Amino acid sequence: MIRLLSTPVLALLIALLAAAVYWPGLSGDFLFDDYPNIVTNERVHLEALDAPSLTLAARGYEPGEIGRPLPALSFALNYYVGGKHAWGYKFINLLVHVLNALLVFALVSRLFGLSHSDDQTPLPAFAVALLWAIHPLQISTVLYVVQRMEILAATSMLLGLLAYLHGRVKQQRGERGWPWLTSSAVLAATGLLSKETAVLFPVFALALELGPLRFGAVRSQTARFLRLAFGAGVAVALLVFLLFVLPRYGAVETYAGRDFDLAERLLSQLRVLPMYLGQMLLPLPGSMPFYYDAWPKSTGWLEPPTTLLGGVFLLALLGAAWRARARMPLFALGVFWFFGAHLLTSNVISLELAFEHRNYFALLGVLLAIADLIRRIPMRDGPALKYTAVALVVVAFGFLGTIRAATWGDPLRLAMDLVAKAPKSSRASSDLATLYIGMSNSNPDSPFFDLGRREFERGSRLPNASPLPEQGLILMAATTGRPVDDAWWQRLIQKLRTRPVSTESIMAVTGLMEQRYRGIPLDDRRLSVAYATMLGRAEMPAHLYAQYGDFALTHLHDGELATRMFIEAVDRAAADPGYAGKIVGALLADGHVVQAKAVMAHTQTIGVPQVGQRSLLPETP
């Protein structure tokens, strides 16, 4: 029976079983960051397959920035084919994930072939690849559309690792392997066009050398060069971290939008990483809430005590892998890959404390380490018992993955599930309340309308809640002709004044602004105070100042405020002279000559090249 399960047949099984697990989740909707990145991001709403449209889509989300062009372009093509229907976006994510699972199968097969040459059966690699593909923790990455960025970056890294491993094996046989090593670097570098996590490829390659490869080569010069190259790379990386990364991302101001500081973030990771390991080893539904905005931070080594315990555990795990790298190279490799995959997201950069998609590649390391341990368990009566136990685990994980995918396939079920798992999460509460309002069709007589209002009220009073619930309350009243409670505006503005200006804070204010432009009657004075408060708390992208300037012209009729905001927008985009030109062109098109002249004069003052709009200015008598 085992002989009948050839590698192509096993690869087909991985693809089919993975598709079967995720299929119930394709009917779900967009979620959280999908909206600003895809649903409301007009740059990826591709209407024509011409060069200018494709270029605009690929350039990302902010003028003058490259962004992540490959996923952005793929979102644009999704939109061109199917508009804003989430099914097509999730389907493409699933296809890429299945491709990645097959790459994992190929990579792990090669690794087992190196370390266990006495056992050539592909079943262990099949089990690792299938578990990686259908693991419940992966559901929230594959079905969360915007994480196509993470998935595509992993594709490039897996291709790069396959090429690197092939080249190194050739060198260990005395053959020419440098072309493969060069191609591995090129393949991995393409991942940077999808997400910055691809920069970790050298770390994963170094782990291969520390584990199964051992810097081995027939030619001593090759082995010596590899050691020197990786040693120099580590030294340069440390210097870059100390001289550039730490001063830039470790500064106090970079944490202005967070409710934790650098020390608290690093301490919290001592609990976050063990939590991830728990989710991987025992992926029970209640252990994966998706939203972690209410997850308690660590404020000291013993606050809570699990902080210190987590640190000791992680240090012991890393030490065990280092000591076992010669005797158990795949176990060591798996542990190194787990830690390496979190080298960016669990470091000094002011990212959120936890997100499940950060384990997309890291899970492979953990499964690889466990598989190596299982293969080494001696069985007196043959491997049948191990095969049975692993098969039961695969079935259990597949069942749990299917259940979670089915939950993600029903928007209401998912929203209620996320609130049940994280009742203190403001994000989960806002999702559920917004869904209730949508189900009511904004009909105040609908029972769902009242459910939405009550959930918004509950969410608004959660500890550290964002202004999104107040935004929801204001809009649900304004869009149905009901009076807007002034207390909602007061709470929204108070949160903007006293709490970190988070992504949700920006979404709350800009969302109100967008609805005002669509004709929803809102209190312009209150909206202006909210917007000005947000801009006064932290540095914002240029387009937000320009938006406020336009609002000052069209709704407040305050020319002086508008001029200040447009000039501020030019300052924020000083590295992109074309942006100033766009502002001038738009102002002239709308007849705002005074503001256009002020912007042009300011560009001369700060040394920005001429924006090319002077000829459009009317001549002064």
How would you explain this protein's 3D organization?
The chain is an all-alpha fold and 621 residues long. The chain has three domains: 7-30 and 84-407, no CATH class; 423-540, no CATH class; 551-621, no CATH class. Helices cover 66% and strands 0% of the residues. It contains 27 helices and no strands. Helix 8 packs parallel to helix 10 (201-213) and helix 14 (329-341) runs antiparallel to helix 15 (362-375).
The main sheet comes to: none
Mean pLDDT across all amino acids: 91
Give me the secondary-structure category.
mainly alpha
Helix/strand order = HHHHHHHHHHHHHHHHHHHHHHHHHHH
How much of the polypeptide forms β-strand, as a percent range?
Answer: under 5%
| Helix segment tally | 27
> Unreliable stretches, pLDDT < 50, 5 or more residues?
none
Instruction: Work out the helicity level.
Output: 55-70%
SS elements, strand count: 0
Shape: globular
Radius of gyration: 27 Å
Summarize the structure.
The protein is an all-alpha fold and 621 residues long.
Helices, strands, pairings?
Blueprint: H1 7-22, H2 34-39, H3 51-58, H4 69-82, H5 86-115, H6 123-134, H7 136-142, H8 148-172, H9 178-190, H10 201-213, H11 220-249, H12 262-281, H13 306-323, H14 329-341, H15 362-375, H16 384-408, H17 411-421, H18 426-439, H19 447-460, H20 468-478, H21 486-498, H22 503-517, H23 524-537, H24 542-556, H25 559-572, H26 577-589, H27 593-605
Helix pairs in contact: 1-5, 1-6, 3-4, 5-6, 5-8, 6-15, 6-16, 7-16, 8-9, 8-10, 10-14, 12-13, 13-14, 14-15, 17-18, 18-19, 18-20, 19-20, 20-21, 20-22, 21-23, 22-23, 23-24, 24-25, 25-27, 26-27
